């Protein structure tokens, strides 16, 4: 019997053949944490009396959640983590403004076939390049940072095929929301999704990263895209290196599967107060919107900024709008291409390299009674500010069209 990608990666990492349900100890290829979780990890290490990194070539630290620090406590935490980084000899340290951890891991560090563990639930993002990636708690990450090892229960491999090509206004976010509408939040708990893309060029890395990012909302242990020509292209373009894709065997067996037909999707919106409360854009069209956030580790990539600029070049925003490219590199490229100029002239507030509004941290929170459209990943009560606010999740085109009109409208009229 052939092996799935999940089984291949975890068999290599454990040094023995594994099957779903096995409890195994594995070697970790890459570990990471950021400012919001990192100080908890270091606290655990200090309590253990061992503050060290097992391999500085396999560890990444980034300041992204509260960056720049909006409170004295946040600044104090970052001072402490800078001291940790210096004392531990950290090589891959990204300070304020460099970018969101998951985007940095995707663009510069994670590789197909790796095991990646970080102290953040959206670590699943780097499954986009075919890595087995999980977010873990502070104690587990502390143990990994010290030893380079962890344990897990081998999840059940679940196959999802991405078929055809998307129409105008449909992106990775809509695939993620469609899956949430079908399986519901936590509906694939204990499983590892392996995504097969029928036409690699029709579903680029930016789209894949969004789907993998929101895999955690489905309860997935990992959300991996089978490496293909798009994976090879992305890594060569970003890092100048060739990679050999790690793929499942032709006769690999899956516990179950599902097909996503891209040409049958339309722009979707997750309405308050759950990621699986999904409706079509036509069902919310006309609803007034107070605030729009375009960015986050879910949808702060260049293609998101590009489509937002394409729509917002049509006038001035009627809803206040904050746009945050996910890294300094994306910001610079968007600036070179004129997207940042377009957003600013349309009335958006633009910065870079912070999670900020997505988690209700800073740089634009939702007030009581306000309706917000976010390209982020979660919309439970209080996620982006006031518990009395209402957060709708959507792709960057839907968000930009809402900002431009001050209400939900179908963005496809700007894209066809």
From TrEMBL:
Xref: SUPFAM superfamilies: Aconitase iron-sulfur domain
Transmembrane annotation, as ranges: none
Lineage: Archaea, Thermoproteota, Thermoprotei, Thermoproteales, Thermoproteaceae
Main EC class the enzyme belongs to: lyase
InterPro entries the record matches: Acnase/IPM_dHydase_lsu_aba_1/3, Acoase/IPM_deHydtase_lsu_aba, Aconitase_4Fe-4S_BS, Aconitase_4Fe-4S_dom, HAcnase/IPMdehydase_lsu_prok, Homoacnase/IPMdehydase_lsu, IPM_dehydratase_rel_enz
Protein name: 3-isopropylmalate dehydratase large subunit
Assembly and interaction partners: Heterodimer of LeuC and LeuD.
Cofactor binding note: Binds 1 [4Fe-4S] cluster per subunit.
Reactions mediated catalytically: (2R,3S)-3-isopropylmalate = (2S)-2-isopropylmalate
Keywords carried by this UniProt record: 4Fe-4S, Amino-acid biosynthesis, Branched-chain amino acid biosynthesis, Iron, Iron-sulfur, Leucine biosynthesis, Lyase, Metal-binding
A GO molecular function held by the record: 4 iron, 4 sulfur cluster binding
HAMAP family, alphabetized: LeuC_type2 (MF_01027)
Listed cofactors: [4Fe-4S] cluster
Domain Aconitase/3-isopropylmalate dehydratase large subunit alpha/beta/alpha: residue ranges: 23-283
Family statement: Belongs to the aconitase/IPM isomerase family. LeuC type 2 subfamily.
EC number: 4.2.1.33
Entry's Gene Ontology BP terms: L-leucine biosynthetic process
Metabolic or biological pathway: Amino-acid biosynthesis; L-leucine biosynthesis; L-leucine from 3-methyl-2-oxobutanoate: step 2/4
């Amino acid at each position: 019997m052939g092996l799935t990608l999940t089984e291949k990666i975890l068999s290599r990492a454990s040094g023995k053949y594994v099957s779903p349900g096995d409890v195994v100890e594995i070697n970790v290829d890459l570990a990471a944490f950021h400012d919001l979780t990192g100080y908890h990890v270091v606290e655990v290490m200090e309590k253990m009396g061992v503050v060290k990194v097992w391999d500085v070539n396999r560890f990444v630290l980034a300041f992204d959640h509260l960056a720049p620090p909006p409170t004295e406590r946040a600044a104090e935490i970052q001072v402490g983590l800078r001291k940790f980084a210096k004392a531990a000899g950290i090589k891959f340290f990204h300070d304020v403004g460099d970018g969101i951890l998951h985007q940095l891991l995707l663009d510069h560090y994670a590789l197909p076939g790796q095991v990646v563990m970080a102290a953040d639930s959206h670590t699943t993002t780097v499954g986009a390049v075919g890595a087995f990636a999980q977010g873990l708690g502070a104690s587990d990450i502390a143990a990994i940072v010290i030893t380079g090892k962890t344990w897990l229960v081998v999840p059940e491999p679940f196959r999802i095929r991405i078929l055809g090509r998307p129409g105008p206004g449909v992106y990775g976010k809509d695939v993620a929301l469609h899956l949430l509408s079908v399986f519901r939040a936590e509906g694939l708990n204990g499983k590892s999704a392996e995504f097969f893309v029928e036409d690699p060029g029709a579903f680029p890395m930016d789209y894949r990263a969004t789907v993998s990012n929101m895999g955690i909302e489905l309860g997935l242990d990992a959300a991996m895209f089978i490496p293909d020509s798009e994976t090879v292209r992305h890594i060569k373009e970003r890092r100048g290196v060739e990679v050999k894709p790690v793929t499942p065997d032709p006769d690999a067996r899956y516990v179950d599967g599902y097909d996503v037909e891209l040409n049958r999707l339309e722009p979707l919106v997750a309405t308050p107060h759950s990621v699986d409360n999904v409706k079509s854009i036509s069902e919310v069209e006309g609803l007034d919107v107070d605030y729009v956030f375009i960015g986050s580790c879910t949808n702060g990539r260049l293609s998101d900024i590009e489509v937002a600029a394409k729509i917002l070049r049509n006038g001035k925003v009627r809803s206040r709008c904050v746009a945050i490219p996910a890294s300094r590199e994306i910001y610079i490229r968007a600036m070179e291409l004129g997207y940042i100029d377009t957003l600013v002239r349309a009335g958006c507030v633009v910065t870079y390299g912070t999670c900020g509004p997505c988690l209700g941290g800073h740089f634009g929170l939702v007030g009581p009674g306000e309706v917000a459209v976010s390209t982020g990943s979660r919309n439970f009560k209080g996620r982006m500010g006031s518990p009395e606010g209402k957060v709708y999740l959507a792709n960057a085109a839907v968000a930009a069209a809402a900002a431009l009109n001050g209400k939900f409208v179908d963005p496809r009229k700007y894209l066809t």
